[in-house]
Amino acid sequence: MADAVEREPTPEVLTEDEQNSLALSVQYHGRPITLTLSTDATIEDLSTLVAEDLQIPPSNQKFLISPKPGLLRPPFKNPILRLDSLPQKAKITLLGSTTQEVADVDSAIATLKQKQQARRAALNAGRKVQATRHRDWKTVTEEATYTFATLRPLPHLHQPEKSLRFLERLRDDPGIKAAMRKHKFSVGLLTEMDPAEHTTHESRTLGLNRNRGEVIELRLRTDAYDGYRDYKVIRKTLCHELAHNVVGPHNAEFHALWNQIEKEVEKNDWSRGGHSLGQEEFYNPGDDYVDDDDHCDAGGWEGGSYVLGGSTSTTQNSAEPLTRREAMARAAEERAKKQENVQKAAEHDSSPPSS
Q: How many CB atoms lie within 10 A of CB 73?
């Protein structure tokens, strides 16, 4: 039996065309595509072949060749760059959309625009065309500068969110905003006052101004914590406290400025306001509200804070604050006295005159 002869594999014989061609692998949409070009083909030749075979016009072509030369796109800076000069392991990625893909996208965009125009036409049907409002950017800038930087209700009191809305209403009041701009008032903090902490046997504090506008506190709630005071009374107190940003003592200069601010607020209050906060009724002193030492102002500028309602520093320091129960009892007592005075006045008016 003859020994088996081990033969060497016959080498693959390339045709002349294959010897003169270059098989180039290109990544497109994540898949390899083999493109056949001549051995002396250039980057410009590759672009032409992609346009013819893949229907990707040169304007949509990008060739990412890594590691070098990087991103190339027609028209090339070096159109005669030979492909066989690229590194042997260079990776070529083709980026671009075919003519049909571009047409499909354009068609989709046109259809979308038509639908949007139809929706706008339907929404605007029957509506009157309104002229574009001119925005006074100077006023916008000033309102952002001359305002209350922070609003803060007292979180330990009932429904602080209502107090916050009250403070927001004061901040956004057209009259207050106009006065703040005119006098260039900037207040660091506008906050709520706790009635129990600022009610003594001698006085009720309605407002505080600390360090000429660093902090302004306002007594928003009634003494019995059963509602909120009348908005315009609180706004009047705020005008008072804003005047203390300029003048500390209660002299003629102070009262002139306070009156001026009040008039400016009333003049610029285009809302002519007055609805109550939420569904609750405000406590309203009515026409018998008196701007006297017991309600609105007497005391002085002491230690960087103005106390509204104290008589002197000695009285303010010696008077002990009432507890909440005492404050509520005193409020009920005062309401009973007022009612008794009203009844006496009515009886006096109805009695026959003495002969």
A: 16
